[in-house]
Amino acid sequence: MVFKTPFFVLLHFKISLKTNKDNSMNTPKRYTITAALPYTNGPIHIGHLAGVYVPADIYARYLRLKGKDVAYISGSDEHGVAIPMRAKKEGVSPQVVIDKYHGIIKQSFIDFGISFDNYSRTSSKIHHETASEFFTKMYNDGEFIEEVSAQLYDAEANQFLADRFVVGTCPKCSFEESYGDQCENCGTSHNATDLINPKSAITGNVPTVKETKHWFLPLDKHEDFLSEWILEGHKKDWKPNVYGQVKSWIDDGLRPRAVTRDLDWGIPVPLKDAEGKVLYVWFDAPIGYISSTKEWAAREGKNWEDYWKKDDTKLVHFIGKDNIVFHCIIFPSMLKAHGNYILPDNVPANEFLNLEGNKLSTSKNWAVWLHEYLEEFPNQQDVLRYTLTANAPENKDNDFTWKDFQAKNNNELVAIFGNFINRVVVLTNKYYQGIVPNPNDFTEVDEDVLTAIKEFPNVIGKSIERYRFREASQELMSLARLGNKYLADEEPWKVIKVDEERVKTIMFVALQISAALAVLSEPFLPFTSDKLKGILNIIQSDSETSLSWENVTEKNILLPANHQINKAELLFSKIEDKTIEAQVEKLQATKIANEQENKVVAPQKETIEFDDFTKLDIRIGTILEAEKVAKTKKLLKIKVDVGIDIRTIVSGIAESFSPKDLIGQQVSVLVNLAPRKIRGVESNGMILMTDTPDGKLAFMEPEKAVKNGQEVS
């Protein structure tokens, strides 16, 4: 019999050869991986996860599996102006806000399996000291310029307005709700004084302009360095969306940027003549990576400077696109000016993730919050991790929908990955009491599959190293597809009836695929990986059967013959329609609430005299009959007993009410309205209605049943 190499195996060979040719990279001695510090003005949502924390975690876990020295660092940003804004809204102190949300965020990350080596906070003593020392050295080295500048001031609030306390029209895209530091519509950064028609977010007043002294980082001084380092040095290896935004900034010409601000929340400027001023959050927050590394190094007995100052360290910043300018232009300029620090090797920023076709918004509660997801979908962390990775907004904005989340789980994780593992483990226990069988001679198909397994670490790894996490996740799923196809083609459940020895080989090969999946899935599906290792009995790191990333390529046998595996457990469970419908309804309720909150109340009508009001004759009536008006969608013909008579009224309420449900309904009727014909039916009066929060019509009815004809006054 002639066996042909399957197309998917050949495809992986081609990918592997191309990848090796295109990506020769010097091997760093250690890696410093930073993930953007989240503001502690609210919990973590899926946009944060997709943009920053899931890809960073995949990268860190992958490197650890490769035996690399990794410091995966983050922490809570607790000095942004969003903090006092939230505190003001909640009627508490900023400290209460940061303590609350730092706790929620940190625990959510732990429960979701984000494997930080250290998660700190910028309110810590070590951070205040590190940021102050950083500023002081740059100040003493003459790296700042001092300027008296005009800033927006709210006289009623008696304070200068921090950027987020100002809202106005963006000077670039004309978005009318731009903040003072950045437009969330077009992503452009600007000064608050650049806004058109600015207003104070505190009082709503139009601010005045007042002079104040601050210290500035002269970015124009670093323009040549940035052009050479990024525009020439990283033209080929940085993502186009990152490179393009940086190039645009540099081409427009860089200008000095304030490193201090007038605010009572933050790290005090360590100068004698700087009372009432704090370090600007964009200056102090990235230094949080350094202080968090110091905290980790002190605990682990390491030298933090090795991870920030040695040339054989690779520094990678994971951020969202709204942070590109800070991590590619401003922070590198700070590191260069300070001296002795390495610069980021890459800043693989993602674009934005939308939710059900609309932009995610913390303030509008339009989000899937991580801590709520963990409560509502227990033990399903990997489903969300996989969905966010498979739909990652790596090069353009992407959309999360609950229907797609369900499909990713049911059609891929359950039907492909979980189905393959379940069949292999069930059959191994059924045929061999859970003992890996001794294989016989391998066919050409067997050899092809075993060879293909060895290629997957390289293929997946190269995608990860190029920050193509979507691609890498699909390569992982291709390994599961390979397993399913192998079982479907070889049909051990049929062959067992005629050739038991052949089935031993089939199951042996299938178990090798299973072991490879257990290892290679860890960066993407860490909880599933742990569970699968437990099923395959390879969970102990010091066991002879423990496996590393490299082992999958280097070892001929991953699960040896006579190795005992455990009973089958479901790795994933099907998500039913009703579960998804509940989440969609939850979002719909949020949308309706937002619409009601933002709904503009109609202005008061022209003033009338009391005598005009007394002319209105409003009576309580009861609906006796109701039917649709022919050839219309909105109109109902209604008979109402209003006490003084029974009359016909035509009302446009057919889209909100069924005729049969109206019988017996008490209503308020304007009875002395002049008759008019509507679609050939004479209408004698008007039924009074209003809108509900969900946009539907509601009757103006008495709280308790009253006699028909009772006047409303």
Notes on the structure:
- The protein is of the alpha+beta class.
- The protein has a domain at 610-699: Nucleic acid-binding proteins (OB fold (Dihydrolipoamide Acetyltransferase, E2P)).
- The protein contains 22 helices and 25 strands.
- A hairpin with a 4-residue loop joins strand 4 (145-154) and strand 5.
- Helix 3 (82-90) crosses helix 4, helix 8 packs across helix 10 (324-338) and helix 17 (500-520) runs antiparallel to helix 18.
- The longest helix has 31 residues, at 402-432.
- The chain is flat.
- The termini are far apart.
- Residues 1-25 have low confidence and may be disordered.
Q: Could you name the key traits of this structure?
A:
alpha+beta; five-stranded antiparallel beta sheet; flat; 25 strands; disordered N terminus; four-stranded parallel beta sheet; 16% strand; 43% helix; 713 residues
- Please tally the β strands and state the result: 25
- Relevant CATH superfamily of the domain at 610-699: Nucleic acid-binding proteins
The proportion of residues in beta strands is 15-25%
DSSP helix fraction? 40-55%
CATH architecture of the domain at 610-699: Beta Barrel
The quaternary structure here is single chain
